[in-house]
Specification:
Length: 136
């Protein structure tokens, strides 16, 4: 169950000018701002508990932009891809914040929006038909 604060955060996103905010954040992420960038990255690492021991470059001051930090290379073998053929591997960091049953080719993805399985699987019709029942 969501707290009131979480609900307000989610609902407010429907009213914000998304394109303008997205462009501003994109410019900020690409900006070389020296000590400001370093300060922001250090706080991001602290807040989100980013394990920099996995990173090929561990000195935060070497990242010129937030984009450089977000696309940082990892040490070889830091995160091996799942060997299990039934496993679903994700190419990005993240947390599962919501999950549930599959209902007629739709699942809850995020913030109350429904997406088709085929869309979530990058247009893969074969796998979406296979997973439509929610069973593996």
């Amino acid at each position: 169950m969501q707290s009131l604060l979480e609900t307000v955060k989610i609902k407010s996103q429907y009213f914000l000018p998304k394109k303008i905010i997205s462009r501003l954040i994109g410019k900020l992420a690409a900006a070389e701002m020296g000590t400001v960038t370093t300060f922001l990255i250090k706080n991001f690492i602290k807040y989100y508990k980013v394990d920099m021991q996995e990173a090929a470059i561990q000195n935060v001051e070497e990242f010129k932009t937030f984009n450089d930090f977000f696309t940082r290379a990892l040490k070889v073998g830091a995160r091996p891809i799942a060997a299990d053929k039934k496993a679903l591997a994700s190419p990005a960091d993240g947390m599962i914040s919501e999950y549930g049953a599959i209902y007629t080719d739709a699942i809850i993805q995020a913030k109350g929006h429904y997406y088709s399985l085929e869309t979530l699987l990058g247009g893969n019709q074969k796998d979406s038909k296979y997973l439509k029942t929610g069973l593996l």
